[in-house]
Amino acid sequence: MMQxxxxxxxxxxxxxxxLEHLLNTGVxxxxxxxxxxxxxxxxxxxxxQPTTTTTTTPPHETAGLQTITKQxxxxxxxxxxxxxxxxxxxxxxxQYKVTHERGVYAxxxxxLIGDGIDLQQLSIGxxxxxxxxxxxxxxxxxxLMEQVWDLKNVAVSDLSYTTSxxxxxxxxxxxxxxxxxxxEKNTLDQAEEMTSEESTTVDKEALNVxxxxxxxxxxxxxxxxxISIGNPLSLGGQLGADAGFDRSTQLTAQVTLNQIHExxxxxxxxxxxxxxxxxxGFSEDVFDKRITRVIRNPxxxxxxxxxxxxxxxxxKVTSQLSDQIFALFIxxxxxxxxxxxxxxxxxxxxxxxxxxxxxDELPLAFKGAQLSxxxxxxxxxxxxxxxxxxxNIFQLPPIQINSNQWEDPNLPATSYDVSDFIGFSxxxxxxxxxDSLESDNHPRExxxxxxxxxxxxxxxxKDKVSDGTLTEYAIDLALSLDQGVGALWKGIQNNKIITxxxxxxxxTECFRRLSGFLALVEGMLKxxxxxxxxxxxxxKRSAALNALNRVKDHLHCNRNYYIQKLLIHLExxxxxxxxxxxxxxxxxxxxxxxxxxxxxxxxxxxQRAYVDRQQIIVPAYRSILxxxxxxxxxxxxxxxxxxxxxxxxxxxxxxxxxxCDGVHIEVAQGLCRLREVPTDHxxxx
Length: 685
Known about the structure:
Layout: H1 12-24, H2 31-44, E1 61-62, E2 65-67, E3 95-109, E4 123-124, E5 127-128, E6 135-165, E7 170-179, H3 189-194, H4 204-216, E8 220-221, E9 227-228, E10 233-234, H5 235-239, H6 245-274, E11 275-282, E12 292-296, E13 304-332, H7 339-344, H8 346-352, H9 356-368, H10 371-388, E14 399-400, E15 406-407, H11 412-415, H12 432-437, H13 447-467, H14 470-490, H15 495-501, H16 509-525, H17 534-557, H18 559-573, H19 577-589, H20 594-603, E16 610-612, E17 615-619, H21 626-636, E18 652-669
Parallel strand pairs: 3-9, 3-10
Antiparallel strand pairs: 1-2, 2-3, 3-6, 4-5, 6-13, 7-11, 7-12, 8-9, 13-17, 13-18, 14-15, 16-17
């Protein structure tokens, strides 16, 4: 249930004051605090060495992995610092970065969805939200976790293969390096598709560990190219509202860093276990695209031992809280996947439907969603509703059935009640059944036949409404009822019978509505469904509606999956225009004071909004410092107590080894020499 400001213990003035204080606080007010904070964090990093690398341009994103540094070449005059002939180990260590993020909710903001009458219903891409819980909004903080990979060295690891070559033997070997060949690549496909076509340098081993941990921990890559870690945490839920927003944020950051740290360690160990080097020997020449090596024993009088080793890369991995950004989180919980959606998004459904059988039925379902069939269905439902369900049309006064009881003749149900109302002397034989079928002066002609047909259809209609299949049968019910009673009703010649049936003292509401029902069918339904093609149309329409209902039921059962795919589809196909327009509409529909809306527009960068599963995240223009976070939390809580700056979160550092491509080959001559080996043409033995 959505909370208002008053329900969760916070007034709108508190959020307004906190935002106003945040907007009025300049960055310069916290420069000294930031310098002190960075100094404390730096002192907590073990084995921290100075580096000569600088960040010159925003890094290119490739599958959530970023190259964050470029080597600053020393001056050519300093030959000692820059030696072209120096071994590789003397070069600057490559460095790579993986960015994770997690949200923390500070305050829920009520959203006015709209009922479509007084206020237009909220929609994204012309797809309406279903109810008051379809869309929710939260103001909170986005925590960015930075994981930096420093490549320290490449080392020789386990022995993979060993063999010996006879004197002067030549052997062709083939080396196949497999490293989790069935790697789940789809987890980062979204980020890979969003990268530019420029050439980027990415460390494959670091990427493999990131992929593995992302898949194992069920993380995902969001629309901003970062790895999103689970759902945002709520202060009122997992964190506890009494902790304070700043302290809860610190706790969340610490827990998330630990989670990233452990996931990286487990994934690196798993990849090392799964790494395998296969070496195959060939005694004849075979064409193959794989990497091969031809090795000949140069000694005619001794053997040659051949040992093949794996190679591993040694990384120093540092995980730390890199940034804190205020953000607006918009959750899309439910959308209306109706006939209009299927008709408008047929291409999206063709590409994303999970059930291949439903993909084959899409053309038929599309026919069921076309305007002519939908209009006929709407008219049929409307006619049946006003005939059997609408509680009051003619505003007739209640009828007294005994000295203390009155019944409403406006209800259609009373017309079909064949039991006598419990009455006293002078009030017997009162029921819709008797009023419809009996008369003191003359027979009712065809009225009994009309009544029994309508009563049967009343029961069928109610059953179809109860089991949710009215859509499938509505047109057939309306047309066949018109065919069954229309001619009989119009053929009544005695006007006195009509007068008695229409008497406001009788329970004959079903007949008072019948003429209107027949007029609706004749004037609105039949022109859409041609009489000449009625039977054929009924069969085709039934098949189309069945397919349409199956697709809608499938979308409803898997709505969370399709909402996620739909948001990504809208973001890409409209170049984020649909997302930014929706965010702008959401801010306008927030049930908060206009001052808060204005403050949010000043704080948030709407054009940078991106999709994260079923959420749209709107980051602020700038990041905040720890002091600003503390003061915001202080203002949000009502300004009670003293402002205490939390301790900085220490980075987590680990040393890991990851298998890499390539092998190390060592050879050694045999100790035993053969005697009396003939000399070759070069004079060598």
